[in-house]
Amino acid sequence: MPRPEVRPGTIVIYTDIGCPWSTVAVVRLLRAREEAGLVDRVSLDHRTFLLEDVNGVPTPKRLVESEIPAVGALEPDLGWKLWQADPATWPVTTAPASEAVHAAKEQSPRAAEELDLALRTALFRDSRCVSLRHEIVDIARKCPNVDADALGEALDDGRARGPMMRDYRANRDAVRGCPHLFFADGHDVLNPGVGLKWVGEPDTGFPVVEHDDPGVCADLVRRAAATAP
After folding, report:
1. How far is Cα 19 from Cα 157, in angstroms, rounded to an integer?
2. pLDDT > 70: what percent of the chain?
């Protein structure tokens, strides 16, 4: 089965911005990279694993909110909250937010990393509808390394959507879920450090974390650094 191409010193991470488990992985990888002093040697290459397309349904508010208590306990400092705004404003698609992250890559890897985390925080802490262009651009203005005006232009002409979706289609079969990480040395891992099971039916049940090892992310950052030029 074909694998996504991974540049040396890079962690390719397939996620959906609306996936809380992916957000835990992103937060932990960024923290581990900083603690290891590897910010200048390791980059996250955000790719999309569009769950709304995989599952054929809008981003499910009830399912996502059933996951918040479990993921919130793993990384409480993110400030997770159940959706505080009008339920009618829940973002039923994350494709525009993912497109924005891919568009930010044109500016720099750091810009894409900043915007990805800012969009996740806006969704899971601030109850902002990250499906909307004006919300995305406003969130981008708070990111030091993102040119929000240039990002808005990229969203308007759609230059990132095609490459994002082509990569998603080409690698969908290789990605087993999200977050799924790939490395230049051929290693890959799904939902690193976290083992969970689902109790009940997806629409009415809830997840239970059976084990959690945040230190795995430090090992993964060092693995990526070992391939850096």
Report:
1. 27
2. 100
